[in-house]
Amino acid sequence: MSTPAPLSTCSCCGEPLADERRIDIRFGMPDAVLETAEEDRRTPGPNALLSVEGVGHFVRCLLPLRLGGDTELVLGTWLEVDEETLRYAAAVWYDEAAYPGLVVRGRLANAVRPWGEEVLGAGMTGRIADPGELPYLVEGHDPVAVGLLGRVWDRDHVLARFPSPLPVAVRTDLGDGWSVERSAGLSARFADGIDHFTGRDRGVAATLFRDDRPERPAEDFLAALLDGAPEPPAGRRHTERRPDGGVRHSSWVTPEDTGRGRYEFSAYAVEPDGSAAGLFCSHETAEAHAWAVHVWRSLRRGDAEAGSPVS
Fold it and tell me: Which long-range contacts (CB under 8 A, 24 or more apart) does 99-104 make?
């Protein structure tokens, strides 16, 4: 699958995007082209047109998806077309009079997350909405395509599937009912059982735990999780106990405390049923402590995975 990259500028003209309610993400290549040799790839004119011997012909298009929260996700994806369509697109692409009338019909050439293989090959038609932009995929020709274009999808469920940095914060599922907010500008990856969110000056590692003694009180499980951890300086730890038996705990240290180059914030949230989540945040400046606390406060359990459309 092609790895998409988010855009802070328009996918066509390169101008900065002023409205964060529109998020642009671009797929570099059609999925079927990723394993092909570069010498087999041909661009008949603009880079938005691609022909690969033995694979097919493709036109880059914009796939607009409606998300909750009045957000629009615009994917710079590829449409597989026939050779005649590709030739016509190449002929009119730079023609100011003819380009606005360009219509391309074909099959979606990227397994767009979170739907994946379900939408790969969906039949769609692209039309020119703005002469300064790529064709927009605005019409579906099978139930999958019609549903993809016509529904309002859960914002976080969709955006959390894109690991590259995004211009907005996204609630991300951690498993076992836990979720946390992934801050704007942080990339995401999952390795060795740990969710990592990283940026230039800050990072987060999130881990889940399950008590092997389910009858143990949450506060005792927290004590076991903290066993062996360095004692933070006075005034740099905080514990909250809930009436239902749940407990949350945080502590933090500075470079002066540790001799390391970053501020470090460690936190846990433990549920009465023995499920727990741990966070480790690091950041370069003291001012970012409020950000680390915010990430901890965003950690919660009980939200269902929202895989269906909002409407």
Answer: 99/128, 99/131, 100/128, 100/131, 101/128, 102/127, 102/128, 102/135, 103/127, 103/135, 104/59, 104/61, 104/79, 104/135
Distance CA 186, CA 184 (A): 6
Q: Do residues 188 and 88 share a domain?
A: no
C-alpha to C-alpha distance for 52 and 34, rounded to whole angstroms: 11
> Would residue 161 count as lying in a domain?
no
CA distance 97 to 217: 73
- Same-domain check for residues 173 and 294: yes
Domain-embedded: residue 163: no
- Of the pLDDT bands very low, low, confident and very high (cuts 50, 70, 90), residue 284 is very high
CA–CA gap between residue 135 and residue 179 (Å, rounded): 36
Please report, for the domain that includes residue 193, its CATH number. Answer: 3.40.1000.10
pLDDT tens digits along 288-302? 999 999 999 999 998
- 244 and 147: one domain? no
Cβ(208)–Cβ(190) below 8 Å: no
Would you say residue 162 lies in a domain? no
pLDDT (mean) for 55-84: 96
E strands within the chain? 4-7, 22-27, 41-42, 49-52, 56-67, 71-81, 103-108, 123-127, 136-140, 152-153, 170-175, 178-182, 187-191, 194-198, 202-210, 237-241, 247-253, 263-270, 275-283, 300-301
In 3D space, the residue among 136, 109, 155 whose CA is nearest the CA of residue 2 turns out to be 109
Task: Determine the structural domain holding residue 27 and report its residue range.
Answer: 4-155
Task: Tell me: do 110 and 136 sit in the same domain.
Answer: yes
Identify whether the C-beta of residue 176 lies closer than 8 Å to the C-beta of residue 102: no
